[in-house]
Design goal:
- There is one protein chain.
- By secondary structure, the chain is an alpha+beta fold.
- Helices cover 28% and strands 28% of the residues.
- A hairpin with a 3-residue loop joins strand 8 and strand 9.
């Protein structure tokens, strides 16, 4: 989604002037400078700067998330986190869009259940969601225009029409970054509490914008692979012990029966994670016998009741493992944002492309890519 024009080899600070203002590009962390936007020459999970020059730590807490492949870090407010945990805030991260949407209770009540899905045709499902969308509000988004990709920009121009306010932030590495938002809630059916919450979120748009972190996006091949067949992620699942949500002991032996196991790493407070579980369950029902899907819930031990509620509500039949200190030390301390999904072979070695965030086109082709990496046939349809 985003990249930043910078000579990474330079150790010095350089300032470039573009049509939407000055952009300060730093190899190392930088101090805020009036009238300049700050961008980062490269990704650093421990310390970067926001466009306003504030400190940004990719793994700091549940408020921050960084998407390496698109070069964007975001910081949520307490209100957004709270509403996300209630299922009222959802998000989408794509190649050129990072979007936050609000769903009032009226919209949630119209959403089809798993039982509804089983009785509806594709056309009926589509019509149902169109009605739901009319009850929702796209709050704000970062849109990234690639000056070299006119086809993608046509789609982006269509997205811009969904927003009342469009602010051009900066240009960097042949990308133009926009912050767009809506602040008119008059067409929504809201309770008094929802009105107050939305008012707080809308008033925090300035904070959200100032705390965007823009860095040089990691090239797909560079970001995923050090060398053919080897993942860039440092963690490993080749040796561990843990418990599942139904109190069963498990270890690396759970991978032995399968050529590839997809491992989805999530937390109960990550709305995007919870939101995608139904889609993962749908995929789980379709995968071939040589492929498996499991999940690791990082806070599964401390939030047992919430995990059980999510598993029941989303109809999750695949194995879910609770996070523990051992898994943290050897595996998920290297995860930089949630959800993150990796693919492991029969020995628990991470192979192929790791996926940070919810993939726009699902996990099927990513599993096939992992199978192909280890010399197996692409078998997920």
């Amino acid at each position: 989604m985003k990249k930043i024009l910078v000579a990474i080899a330079l150790m010095c600070v350089m300032t470039i002037v573009c049509s939407c203002g000055q952009v300060k590009v730093e190899k190392e962390v930088s101090m805020p400078i009036d009238s300049e936007y700050v961008v980062n020459a490269e990704y650093n999970s421990k310390s970067m700067k926001t466009i306003a020059g504030n400190e940004f730590v990719a793994r700091g807490d549940k408020k921050t998330a960084a998407y390496k492949m698109i070069g964007l870090g975001i910081t949520d407010t307490d209100e957004i986190i709270s509403e996300r945990e209630k299922g009222k805030i959802s998000g989408f991260v794509g190649d050129d869009t990072c979007l936050i949407t609000y769903s009032p209770q009226k919209a949630i009540e119209m959403m089809p259940t798993e039982e509804d899905y089983s009785k509806m045709s594709d056309e009926e499902i589509s019509e149902c969601w169109k009605k739901v969308r009319k009850k929702e509000l796209d709050l704000c988004a970062v849109l990234i225009e690639d000056v070299k990709n006119s086809e993608a920009n046509e789609r982006l121009e269509s997205t811009k029409k969904d927003f009342e306010h469009i602010e051009k932030l900066l240009e960097f590495d042949d990308k133009i970054f926009y912050f767009v938002y809506n602040d008119d809630t008059s067409n929504l059916e809201l309770t008094e509490d929802e009105k107050q919450v939305l008012d707080k979120i809308i008033k925090s748009y300035g904070y959200i914008k100032d705390n965007l972190c823009i860095f040089k996006a990691v090239d797909e091949e560079e970001g995923f692979m050090h060398e053919e067949g080897k993942s860039v992620m440092e963690g490993s699942l080749s040796e561990f012990t843990a418990q599942t949500t139904d109190e069963k002991d498990v270890n690396q032996e759970i991978f032995k029966k399968y050529d590839i196991t997809m491992v989805n790493v999530w937390t109960t407070w990550c709305g995007y994670c919870v939101e995608e579980m139904k889609d993962i369950q749908t995929l789980y029902k379709k995968i071939p016998d040589n492929v498996n899907i499991i999940s690791v819930c990082v806070d599964g031990d401390s939030e047992k009741e919430i995990v059980e509620e999510i598993i029941k509500d989303k109809g999750m039949e695949f194995l879910t493992i609770r996070g523990n200190d051992e898994l943290k030390d050897t595996f998920y301390k290297y995860v930089e944002a949630y959800p993150t999904t990796v693919f492991v072979d029969q020995n628990g070695n991470i192979v192929g492309k790791e996926q940070v965030g919810v993939p726009e086109n699902g996990y099927g082709e990513l599993i096939n890519d992992a199978l192909e990496t280890i010399g197996k046939e692409r078998s997920v349809k």
